[in-house]
């Protein structure tokens, strides 16, 4: 039987404090790790290479969505069947990976989305409300998601509207792909989020909501997830 190749894509910006432990944890459950270092000022890329990740270093900051999109292209070229996204800051628990990838490996789902036990920002609640009503997605901004590579190959693009890692999920949901949602663990971040402090991060999320409503898959709500 052919084993399905699982590749993790980790977007990272200045995460030297946590990246070694994150990669070690993720490697226990994935065949390969691709780290997209988005012009970090610190040693994130150096440490990630030492830990055996495939590292892409952007010369200038391209943003979360472009970074993930690039990671998916590389994962597809490297023969991935399942691709998951995982944060570099230590908030996610690698022990959740088997449950996140299992529905795809066993052919029961095309996309699996984590549901975090808490959300930090007001706009995250608003985004979740919109996503739940439109498509039944409870926690669209959860950074821990897994995809069958076929979804990416069929629909593609994370970076068309830059909606913080939600575009492919919404387009897949709208197109009728099978979405499964799973409760995950979440540690608290000890320093400032790389998306910025409260006002900046809330503004980014608010723009993402508007983009998803008007341009993304969410406007087509006919394929509700159960
Ligand atoms: N490639 C890339 N990664 C980013 C960027 N901003 C944040 N990240 C990464 O995305 C993940 C989530 O970011 P974080 O600031 O912790 O968001 P929060 O968990 O919603 O507070 C972390 O792994 C960050 O290093 C960016 O501009 N580019
Ligand atoms: Mg975080």
Summarize the structure.
By secondary structure, the protein is an alpha/beta fold.
Structure write-up:
The protein has 226 residues and is α/β, with parallel strands linked by helices. The protein has a single domain, classed as Spore Coat Polysaccharide Biosynthesis Protein SpsA, Chain A (Alpha-Beta Complex), CATH 3.90.550.10. The protein is built from 8 helices and 7 strands; from the N terminus they run βαβαβαβαβαβααβα. A 7-stranded mixed β-sheet has the order 3-2-1-4-6-5-7, sandwiched between helices. It is globular. The C terminus is likely disordered. The structure holds guanosine-5'-diphosphate and magnesium ion. The site of guanosine-5'-diphosphate has 19 residues, from β1 and α3.
Which terms summarize this structure?
226 residues, alpha/beta, Spore Coat Polysaccharide Biosynthesis Protein SpsA, Chain A, 8 helices, 38% helix, disordered C terminus, binds magnesium ion
Topology of helices and strands:
Blueprint lengths: L5 E7 L6 H9 L4 E6 L6 H7 L3 E4 L6 H14 L4 E4 L11 H9 L5 E5 L6 H14 L9 E4 H7 L11 H8 L4 E5 L14 H17 L12
Helix pairs in contact: 5-8
The structure holds guanosine-5'-diphosphate (GDP) and magnesium ion.
The site of magnesium ion has 5 residues, from loops.
Order of helices and strands: EHEHEHEHEHEHHEH
| Secondary-structure content class | alpha/beta
Report the count of strand segments.
7
Say which CATH homologous superfamily is assigned.
Spore Coat Polysaccharide Biosynthesis Protein SpsA, Chain A
The strand line-up of the biggest sheet is 3-2-1-4-6-5-7
Question: Which molecules other than protein and nucleic acid are bound?
Answer: guanosine-5'-diphosphate, magnesium ion
- Determine the fraction of residues in helical runs and give it as a percent range: 25-40%
């Amino acid at each position: 039987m052919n084993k399905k190749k699982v590749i993790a894509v980790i977007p990272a910006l200045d995460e030297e404090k946590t990246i070694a432990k994150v990669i070690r944890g993720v490697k226990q459950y994935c065949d390969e790790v691709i780290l997209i270092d988005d012009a970090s000022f610190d040693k994130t890329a150096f440490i990630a290479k030492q830990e055996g990740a495939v590292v892409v270093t952007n010369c200038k900051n391209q943003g979360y969505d472009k970074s993930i999109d690039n990671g998916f292209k590389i994962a597809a070229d490297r023969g991935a069947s399942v691709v998951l996204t995982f944060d570099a800051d230590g908030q996610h628990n690698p022990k959740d990976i088997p449950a996140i990838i299992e529905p795809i490996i066993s052919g029961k789902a095309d996309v699996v989305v984590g549901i975090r036990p808490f959300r930090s920002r007001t706009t995250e609640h608003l985004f979740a409300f919109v996503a739940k009503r439109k498509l039944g997605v409870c926690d669209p901004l959860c950074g821990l998601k897994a995809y069958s590579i076929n979804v990416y190959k069929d629909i593609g693009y994370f970076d068309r509207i830059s909606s913080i890692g939600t575009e492919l999920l919404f387009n897949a949901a709208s197109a009728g792909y099978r979405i499964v949602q799973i409760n995950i663990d979440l540690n608290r971040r000890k320093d400032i989020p790389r998306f910025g402090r409260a006002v900046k991060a809330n503004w980014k999320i608010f723009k993402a909501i508007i983009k998803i409503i008007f341009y993304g898959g969410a406007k087509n709500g006919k394929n509700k997830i159960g």
